[in-house]
Every structure is written in C-alpha cells, then in structure tokens.
Design goal:
- By secondary structure, this protein is α+β, with helices and mostly antiparallel strands.
- The chain has one domain.
- The protein is built from 3 helices and 7 strands.
- Strands 2-3-4-5-1-6-7 form a 7-stranded antiparallel beta sheet, covered by helices on one side.
- A hairpin with a 2-residue loop joins strand 6 and strand 7.
- The radius of gyration is 14 Å and the shape is globular.
- The termini are close together.
Length: 129
C-alpha cells in the first residue's frame, strides 16, 4: 500500500542533522536526485524538498532541519532502507519515532540503530487495518 511515512525525533527533541548536510548525503546516495530548499512560512523554517528514483519509480520527500523526514508515494519496503540509512547519519542510539499518514494515531518508537528489515516490519505493523 502506497503511503506517506514520517520519521522524527521524539516530541521535544531534535536531530543534529541540518538540511544542507542531508542534501549532500542524499546526492551522494542517490545520483540524479533533485533537491530544492524551500520555506514553510507557517513554520518560519526552511526545508529540503527532494525527489529520487527508487526501483524505477520517482519518489518524493522532505526534510526539516532537526526532523521530521517525510517520505511520500511508497510502501514500507521502498522506504525502510532509506530510513535506516538516514538514522545511520545520526549519532548511534539517537531516538526516532515513525508514523504512517494512513494511521496517524500509531506513533511508534524505532529501536536504536535499526536495520532496514526492522524498520520495514514496524512500518508494516502500523498499517491501518
């Protein structure tokens, strides 16, 4: 099921990863990535808006400095490796939570330093019934 996934620091916390640094890492991981720095006036904050190709399909995402990471138009299998990779850019053990747009009540903590398989399983478990 295609969905939008949100990965963030727990409430009241921020990740030590700015948008320029993530932009650089995304370009290295996904050659051909398109990225734009945009402004969210309601938040008074810039964010990175990007698109990449995964398994032959264009996928889009956004990242706000310190979190959240928002990944659109994919399923748990599509996005789990990217989420694990992003979390590996953070200091080991940095806490994170995940949510699906289709089930916003299920905000779920991710384990410390999770593998793509663990993330995929968690994202699949929080899918709406």
């Amino acid at each position: 099921m295609l969905d939008t996934f949100f990965v963030n620091a727990p409430e009241g916390a921020r990740w030590p990863l700015d948008i320029d640094t993530l932009d650089q890492h995304l370009q290295e991981r996904f050659p051909g990535m398109n990225g734009w720095i945009r402004n969210a006036p309601a938040l008074g904050q810039d964010y990175l808006d990007f698109d990449i190709v995964l398994d032959g399909s264009r996928r889009t995402g956004s990242y706000y400095g310190g979190g959240p990471l928002i990944l659109n138009d994919g399923d748990a299998e599509d996005w789990a490796p990217t989420i694990a990779w992003l979390l590996s850019l953070l200091p080991s053990g940095t806490p994170a939570v995940a949510m699906r747009e289709s089930n916003p009540e299920a905000i779920t903590p991710l384990p410390a330093d999770p593998s793509p398989v663990q993330i995929q399983q968690i994202l699949e478990q929080i899918a709406p019934e």
